[in-house]
Specification:
The complex is a heterodimer of chains A (166) and B (266). Chain A has 166 residues and is an alpha+beta fold. Chain A contains five helices and five strands, in the order ββαβββαααα. Chain A has helices at residues 23-30, 86-93, 103-117, 123-129, 141-155, and strands at residues 3-8, 11-16, 49-52, 55-58, 71-73. Bound molecules: flavin-adenine dinucleotide and FE2/S2 (inorganic) cluster (2 copies).
Amino acid sequence: MPAVSMTVNGKPVTADVDPRTLLVQFLREELRLTGTHVGCDTSQCGACVVHVNGRAIKSCTVFALQLEGAKVATIEGLANGDQLHPMQEAFRDNHGLQCGFCTPGMIMAAVDIVNRKGHDLDEHTIRSELEGNLCRCTGYHNIVKAIAAGARAMGSGAAVTQKAAE
Amino acid sequence: MYAFTLHRPSSVRQAANLLAKSEDAKLLAGGQTLIPTMKQRLASPASLIDLSLIEGLSGIELRGRSIVIGAMTRHAEVADSPVVQENLPALAELAGEIGDPHVRNMGTIGGSLANNDPNADYPAAALGLGATIVTNKRRIAADEFFTGMFETALGADEIVTKVMFPLPKKAAYVKFANPASRYALVGVLVSKRGREIRVAVTGAGANGVFRVTAFEEALQRRFGPKSLDGLSVPAAGLNSDIHGSAEYRAHLIGVLARRAVAAAAG
Ligand SMILES: Cc1cc2nc3c(=O)[nH]c(=O)nc-3n(C[C@H](O)[C@H](O)[C@H](O)COP(=O)(O)OP(=O)(O)OC[C@H]3O[C@@H](n4cnc5c(N)ncnc54)[C@H](O)[C@@H]3O)c2cc1C
Ligand code: FES
Ligand code: FES
């Protein structure tokens, strides 16, 4: 089997993989990072969103072998020890999750929105940027609130420094 | 998904050689169409040729009165490109409305054109702006490139390397997106460049993207939405599915074309 090496949440990893291995399988089954979820496996729901070289992508729609040398960040890389990332904290404070299945993808997508669009996000921007993330529980309302609050918190000086997630 | 071997060539020539000599090989660009298709076992290539390591296949450049976009350029790069936003805003907007942010970070213009999905957006851009599709072998005018649903003029070992868009004087794209998939239920791109007027429709044609010559001729006389008064596209030959009937699509073409002309003229 061919080998692949990449950096996941700051740590270098190498493994032999079947070429069919999707990034999400590699993360969950090889690295045991089960925070990244598989919702649909048809590229629709966004439960599997991670960051690759700083951009949000659906990890169910890329092969691990394509990511030789890439820097991957998953939900596990966000918190700083016991201290949640401000976006995670905002989801908790705003009741932005119910069953929690979509949450890792929502939070990775949310951090990506902030990286691209800044800390002052209006509702319209958040809703249209969430096009690729489905939630079956919340009706989105509190997710939108959480992302606006998380974005502000990420911009304020009090925000915990993001652990080297890449 | 069935097993395959992955090749990662570093030049277009290597990729073309691999494509020519492998029995059942497919090019892998952004994978946003091909990987889901392979999961469903609707495609089962014996080998995949990943284009992502080939230098020079991606990037956006203003060359004379054209914008040249490398085949591996991601939708997000086109949407966010200051060069495109400034010189051909209709194309930046079109790219920014494809799918969702995560799909746009992976999907490529070359993959979208080669795939020629009847509901995809880029085919409307290529045909509606009179683009030229450049391959490792030749240049193909958009008018000759799209040959039917999921069909193109590309040969078996032909690789799209870039797409050249001549800059129009006026252009706009208006899409009625399927609310679930964001693909175009109907999308209309209208452009004017010198004496040439183009009206290209995606999402509606049974053979994929097409031009509406009756609209183009009316707009030749005067480029404004009123010129389309009384004109419509016949429903016969348009797609009909759970998302919309042929009549509904025919109606949408008229509405969206008027909006696109108004946006382009304004
Ligand atoms: C959830 C979702 C929503 C989407 N919504 C939209 C939408 O609203 N509008 C829209 O237009 N599209 C949409 N798409 C499709 C998306 O734009 C794809 O990225 C695109 O159609 C294919 O591009 P790709 O780079 O991913 O190609 P791939 O999937 O890698 O390849 C597609 C096909 O093209 C061939 N190919 C790729 N590159 C080349 C090349 N350079 N030369 C020759 N052949 C090549 C491949 O062999 C394959 O057959 C959506 C996709 C998803 C998953
Ligand atoms: S599991 Fe990847 S998009 Fe749903
Ligand atoms: S919280 Fe249950 S799917 Fe979103």
